[in-house]
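Hi F.,

I've been meaning to write this up properly since the lab meeting, where we talked about keeping a consistent format for the predictions we share between groups. The idea is simple: the sequence comes first, exactly as it goes in, then the structure tokens exactly as they come out, then a line or two of notes. No screenshots and no reformatting. I'm using this chain as the first example so we have something concrete to point to.
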Amino acid sequence: MAHLSLITRIGQASDRLTLATLRWRGAVAANYQPTDLLMATVRRAQIDMVLALTPAMVTANLACIGCLIALELTNPRGQYFIFIWASVMMALLTNWISAYRVARSKRALGRGKLASAHSTGVVILSSTAYAMLWSVGMVVVLYHATPQEIAFLGALAAGLVAGGAWVLYSIPLAAISYGLLLLAPVLLTHVIMGNPLWGYYIIVSITFYILLLDSIVRHSTQFIAERIGHEQAAAQRDVISLLMNDIEATGTCWLWRSDAHLRLSHASSGFAAALGLKQSALLGRRLGEVLTECGAHSNDPKSQEALSRITASNGPDLPHFEFRLKIHSPSGGERHLAIYGSRSDIGDASRAPFEGFVRDITEAVRDHEKIQFLATRDALTGLWNAAGFIARAQEEIDRRHGRIRPALGSVADQPFNALTASTRVELHDPDAPMTAMTAMFLYIDADNLKAVNDTYGHRAGDALLVEVARNLTEVAGSSCVIGRKGGDEFQLFGYFVSEAQARNLAQKVCQRLGASFNYDQITIRKSCSIGAVIQSRSTYSIGTLEQWADRALYSAKNKGKARLEYYDEELGAQVFQQRRITADLPAALDRGELTVRFQPIVCIADEKIVGCEALLRWNHADFGPVSPAAIVDAARASGKQTELGDYILERAVTAALDWPGQSYVSVNATAFELNDPDYFKRIVAALERAGCPPERLCIEITESQLLERNRTVLANLLKIRNSGIKLAVDDFGSGYSSLSYLPQYPSNFLKLDRSLLGQDNPVTGRAILRAVATLANELKVLAVAEGVETLTELNMVREAGILLVQGFHYHHPMARNEIASMMATRGARDFEWPF
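Output, unedited:
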């Protein structure tokens, strides 16, 4: 911060006193803080007011100085000092007059509309010095004055103080300091001289000064508040004027008027120019006729319908209308216009004229298209992003099977950057024969991205991803939809004349993605695994093809990576199994074939059980044990998610009643349940039917579900927490980064995914555990370490300060009777909440 001079500091103190006075008097809000520009204009107004009264002040001071000189001349006392003093005063007054003339000149030339704190400080310092000089002169005369002269000097002092307040009231600090420095020395002289009436002088002077202060505060507050209001009003007028001028200058909004049959009687010149016509060419012609002649059209069905009605109608059946259209600008390119019109409500409705306006929305449409474009593209590679790829590929599938006919020239089909400029993905002509009906989906994973990042840095990793994207576009060209799924995953979809052609392209992609490339004088080898699915004349959705290709990719990675694997009958068998499971699930729920196992959650301190997690199990008659994930998928596909959730919840809360103390049971909630508005009611109903207190139930939500930021999810979580039911965030650290969401959701437990134990790097694992434990402690959430299987892992958890553990090191999941028997024998504990 630069050094501020004393004068500037005095000016700033004046500003603070001015604002404090305004707030105290209620002229502005208590937290009001003007802008620097507004404060500069207020200072200018304060100084101008002082200068406006300068001539009168100088005249009065000259008269007072003359009186003191005359007093000395009529009663000579040999005090030649008074003449020296008068000379100094005359010089100072001359300086005041010079400053006044300079200020008037600047104002006349339109300069000096703002004033700095330094300028205010100069006025305050000058008035203070002037007051001190006056007090010196009067004190010298007062020492040898007669009683009559003392009375005269008292009146003179009062007049000077009042006159100074009158001149300086616009700057409160100047007026207050001027009066105080003028009165105080005179009163002090009376006391020192032992004037028998000095007490009366002091009482009268203080009373007079208090009244003067009140007058200064009142008048300065009124003056400054009016000035602020004036400046704010001027600023608002300037803004309004600027907006109007901007609309006029940019020509983005034009008025039009017509008769009852839409024959134009008035049209702005800007409207005519936008249509490429002269203003006179519009008058007397029907609006629809003019627009049709200019080639106006719209891709929006509603707007096109409104335009057709305008063209075909004579007006009486159109109370109001609004539509958007495109025209070819006379200067080249397309122009987008929004046209609004409504019938006047004055007089006979059938004869009432139309009035409306036209807005040029070209820039808004382009901005929207740009946003839409960026929303579907990957920023690094320029390929489709995950959402854009799926939408575009599904669009192509639907078009091939006659379900849609996409519009050509979509903004999303334009090249994103240099990478895709020459290899843009194009929509095929919808009228062309559909000879290529063999669909292929490739799911590609850059196997060595992590190794490249770790070895050469993330810029090299980004270069690897860009190189993969370039290879894909160069090999596939414009015949395929290519996208980046995210991270190190890419996807490709296209139609081919035959399966052989599709396999040939897949093989070329595999070979190209196995080559090396140069980065910063370093040769880096690419290694990519590819899962492929080829279907001839199938009607499968893009989601299904993606799922199959993903399974083929999984197989390729399991077989050693850097290879191409096709979806085959074996993988098809897995799909068949999942479909059977989906079909059999409703009956299995009705027959009670699904069981619930309970895995204890143990307190490290005394190794006693504080609760258990309810885990779903199903031993299928044909396929054996079915994974919980497969069961959930089957429930989603069969529409039995609600029934499955109630099935688990009922058995979990009923089993908890068999356990001693206040040990609780945790039940996992699916995303479907959290988005169900009735989910909380179902929980309450299950607790009531079982007679289980809400404190003995904990609902677990996965980390990914924290990203479901909608009102229903949040409402359910708040109701659950407020009812006394515990909440836990499960699998924390397994994928999504949800740190920013944790404070927004009311959870009790943070269940750490086993991956955070850092099996590959124990040092990193310990660091991560300590960091997460600290985070949980700061958020007043209990951390639970999941998947603890060894003593080494248990020691890591203990060292991190985590209190609760769940894993095979202590207990495997057990049946209801087994867990009840063990807890009855070994005991359980009521966990004391540490926060």
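Notes:
The chain is about 55% helix and 15% strand.
The radius of gyration is 43 Å.

If this format works for you, I'll send the rest the same way.

G.
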